[in-house]
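Morning F.,

Quick status update on the modeling queue. The single chain you submitted on Monday has been processed. Sequence for confirmation:
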Amino acid sequence: MKVFKDKVLQDKFDKDGFVKLQFLDQKTIEKLLILYKEIQPVSYPGFSSTIYNPNIEVKKETSKRISNLLDERIKREFMDFRSLGGNFLCKTSGPESFLQTHQDWTIVDEAVFESITIWMPLIDTSEENGALRVLPGSHKFSQVLRSPTLPGAFNKILNEAYHEMILVPMKAGEAIVFNHALLHASGPNMSGSDRVIAIYGLVPQEAQLFFFHRAPTGKVEKYKIADDFFLTYNNIGSVPEFSEKTDEFEYVWQDWNIGDLKSAISNHDNESINVDLIAEKDSNTSQKNTPEKDINAKSSYSLVNNIKEIIMPIKSFLRVYTPINILREIRSRLVSR
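Structure tokens below.
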């Protein structure tokens, strides 16, 4: 399904599960920061979200005001989506602000639709203050259902997944848009200042929202939920109030290991290079087919293919011999002496 009106953004989003783009002007950034300070004048230690506020009316009003600031920008960039609401995230400075590897909950039929988050830093983000980390392509690794009461497929390899991620440093006003199934995390904020983010959720206009809950029997219960679910769901882990149960079924849980993860990453790397090859080939063959251009097209395609053969072993080497793995190996050898 299409998320973006721009084809280049859509193709990258389909492949990697996220895109980064310029999104907010300076006036909007300033208005969002004023709103954040108004509703949360004191920062809570570590990682916090205004969605944790038990006052539902405050959350609804906050979301409405964020929507008013973003509405026109969203209409220009995205296809026909509707809002899940907006809120703020804050990391105070300190090691406790680390946010472990996770995926967001399954709330639509992901065989048909995609639900997304727009993640908008209101200050520049870097490794020092806990910039977002993502694992490209991981939105396609597993089709497992996700919710606060369901075991995650990657629970046993969260640390390993974290070290496979890429850091996405950003300027204030940029946004990263990601699929809810994408594995993401963020390191601790050690900058000495708060890191404040505005986020906003979107779902396709025609998509029904669902919540999945693990019943005491071990079966999975499926509930229809309203669009304001994230603004009204305060008792995380419980069956949502005002929801309608539509199904109950047996479910086979997935339990990934590091080998599964490495294989999925390798497959995504191969897919990425193949997509680039196809794009290169299409670009060349769409030109007028003179003998000279045919030769150039074949040469370009051959060059890219040769680069693929060079890059893939390097990528495999770098994924194994990361700095942390090298340090672990050194420590292991010293201890064994």
